[in-house]
Amino acid sequence: MNKREKAPLVQKKQNVSAPSASNRVSFRITYSIIAHVCITIAKGTIYVAPSSLKGNPGYGIFTTRNVWKGEKILGGPDGVAIPVEGYDQLDVPKGDLKKQWIQLWDPYWWGRGVPDHVAFEAGPDIVDFQIGFGYLPNHHCELSSLNPGYPQDTPYEDSLANRFESPGAGAFSYNIGREFSSTRDVKAGEELFMSYGYCKHGSGPGWTNDVYMPAEFNVASDIIWNRIGPHANESFHFDGSGNVVLEDSVVGNDTATVKAKLVKELLPETKEQVQRLAAAPLTREDLPKYLASKRGVNPRTPEWIRENGMCLETLVARKSTLPHAGQGAFARFSIKKGSIVTMAPVLHIMDKDVLALYEGQTESEAEEGNDDDYEGDSVDKEGTKGDGDKNSGSEDGESVDRNHPRQVGTQLLLNYCFSNPHSTVLLCPATNAVLVNHCSKRKQQCGPNGPNADYRWSSGWDPTSDEWRRQSLEELATKSFRGLSFEIYALRDIAPGEEVFIDYGEAWEQAWEEHVRQWKPRSVPKNWISAKEANEMNDEPILEDLLVGTKLVEEGATTTFGDHPYLMTGCVYWTTDMDYDEVFENATATLYSNNKKNNIDDMLKTFSDDGSRYEYPNNKGYASHEDGLHWPCSVVYQETGNDKDYDDDDSYQDTYVVQIQPNPTYPGVDDIPWVRNGLPRLLRHFPRSSIRYFVKPYASDQHLPGVFRQPIGMRDDLFPEQWKNIPDSK
Q1: What is d(CA 119, CA 155) in angstroms, rounded to the nearest whole number?
Q2: Which of 5, 17, 449, 473 has the most CB atoms in a 10 Å sphere around its CB?
Q3: Between residues 371 and 61, which one has the greater pLDDT?
Q4: Per residue, what are the HEC states of 196-249?
Q5: DSSP assignment of 407-423, as one string?
Q6: Over the stretch 627-658, which tens digit does the pLDDT of each residue have?
Q7: Cα atoms in the Cβ-side hemisphere of radius 13 Å centred on 410
Q8: Of 254, 243, 184, 252, nearest to 222 (Cα)?
């Protein structure tokens, strides 16, 4: 399975809270305890409120201010992105439960649109759970207004913790959230949509068959334009009450690309609506977007949004005031005692054991059979077992036993979820609530007053959550969508800029203290540098440890990244006709590797072409890259003015000879001739600005042995009694 084919462009389907997209019921949020935090926060302009999409009883994101094209929505990056690896590892203990988890979460995380620093972190079967703003936008092809970029400065903050000095290294994500901007002018009151890339029926999950697609907008536009346009050859007909009368043959029947029912919903229903359409200054090209905004959604006003929504801008991510904690959640505005600090829709996982990571397993490699009763070696909640090396067959070099695979770690996601010790269930918030760090009155980590906030179930604003938490564990297991919600609320007045804390519970606190006691500092390797620090030196030559030199290339080495213990290089690259040239089709790896007379000049003449074309699109740099733009590459050497120029071009300025390596995330990579035949793909005059440092696969802090893994404790008085399925004796 290719995860880029399975997972959507972004993380969630249109009907987030609904049983199905065909459930055409209206949704009304009931607030019985509070009016809204947003009403008291004049500066907040981005809200979560009932979606404007017709027939969608879920939430959407709205703006109460005008947003201009290119403007940043939040004024900075979203909260945090949590990598989820081992996506295709299904032939493992409790594989059926893991498959159930994958199916539930698949519409909510990012499978495409994964930044390359995440894609390289743990192999091709990795997805990106972007909490906060990245979780909430609904899908729309015509009204899409959001562009999910990456922070210009630091998309990967591996200097948040020093792996040689901090016991917190690897216990939190270093992936900074996306930075959303507007692709068009948006008026106050509009819902902010994003295209998930599914703009044809049947092009994605089942819900794509039930929502408006460009095909319906175009068919409806043709029907209207043929009746009101300047060259109209037909007209609308009305009954005695002024309602439009339209023969079924006008709309036609369902086809693979057009749903007749959806087309009919977009057409005017009354004489007044027809007259309004005819009077509007529209061209045929304007009609689809007009119909999308007037017929496909329910109009909202800023006043309605403030009254019926909740502010999404109450918290901002910054480095925590606590040591070893990574980012924290800081109040952007004053928050009164008792007010909601932030909403926290949660996704559930029926069994926390599905977050175990096993050695060398992917679905494509899996053999039949699944032993759900496996009771072999496992790791404790503080992290990995053994050396954590996922590239070896086993600790002693033997092949992997697929019936009893060795557990080598636990998903980082575990640290961001709530759990009760008497239950297998995990509850994972999908907003900036996950950034709220731990503090207790017992230890007073944040000061003598203890935490300034607490958590509870949603206070009436999510009726689905009220219903779900009364259901049995068996009923919860049948759910295929999100339906539970928490909220963080203030225990006392919180000032602007103050960090927000809750109590994770005594068990979490004890687990952390035990981890700190057992943790030992690590020695610093020679020439160590973080990815953040290395990429900040993008105007300087490539690190010497990452220059492979000509010898390895001449000897036929096809995959090498130099001697750096932590970093590798990635090059901006896309395939061209040269990748399929006959020189790669006709040559063989055996001939190449056995030729003892290989020299770099001859190899460049045979296997290389000009690499100067490979620049970031629009010269915007890494922040604007699309997933898969970087391919692993070996930097051979830096060119100088004395190098022979094979293109008769005398310009040499910060350019290199590089060897492109196969990109495992590229569909069909094994069919590219130079990959299939094991031949070098060399590029000359490659720009220094198009070479970026990445952390080697499985070399990040999150893959260190013994990293801290422990869910947030959920109190007994809040956790549903009927979900407690672990006896006290366990």
Answers
A1: 13
A2: 17
A3: 61
A4: CCCCCCCCCCHHHHCCCCHHHHHHHHHHHHHHHCCCCCCCCEECCCCEEECCHH
A5: EEEE-GGGGGSEE-TT-
A6: 899 999 999 999 986 554 544 444 446 899 99
A7: 23
A8: 252
Q: Phi-psi category of 660—alpha, beta or left, where left has phi over 0 and alpha has psi -120 to 50?
A: beta
91 is written with which tokens?
Answer: 């032939």
10 Å Cβ neighbour count for 172? 26
Q: What tens digit of pLDDT does each residue of 672-685 get? A: 999 999 889 999 99
Alpha carbons 221 and 624: distance in angstroms, whole number: 34
- CA within 13 Å, CB half, 167: 14
Q: Is the pLDDT of residue 144 over 80?
A: yes
One DSSP character per residue, 450-513 reads: --SEEEEE--SS-HHHHHHTTS-HHHHHT--S--EEEEEEESS-B-TTPBPEE---HHHHHHHH
Half-sphere exposure of 314 (CA within 13 A, CB side): 32
Least confident of 26-40, 55-69, 462-476, 628-642: 26-40
Closest CA relative to residue 169, chosen from 536, 707, 672, 576: 707
What CA–CA distance (Å, rounded) separates 649 from 449? 69
3-state secondary structure of 312: coil
Residue in the block written with tokens 């290089």 = 569
Cα-Cα-Cα-Cα dihedral of 629, 631, 636, 642, to 10°? -20
Question: Which one-letter amino acid corresponds to residue 470?
Answer: R
Q: Tell me if 446 sits within 8 A of 501, measured CB to CB.
A: yes
CB-neighbour burial class of residue 626 (10 A; exposed 0-12, middle 13-18, buried 19+)? exposed
- DSSP SS3 for 27: coil
Nearest to 140 by CA among 84, 191, 204, 73: 191
Q: How many residues does the chain have?
A: 730
Instruction: Extract the tokens encoding 495.
Output: 């000032």
**Type of residue numbered 490:** A
Q: Which residues contact 723 (CB under 8 A, 6 or more apart)?
A: 420, 423, 425, 473, 476
Question: What distance in Å separates the CA atoms of residue 283 and residue 231, rounded to the nearest whole number?
Answer: 12
Handedness of CA 353, 356, 362, 365 (dihedral sign): negative
Question: Tokens standing for 472?
Answer: 């049995």
Indicate the burial class of 391 (C-beta count within 10 angstroms; 0-12, 13-18, 19 or more). Answer: exposed
- Model pTM? 0.85
* 46 SS3 class: strand
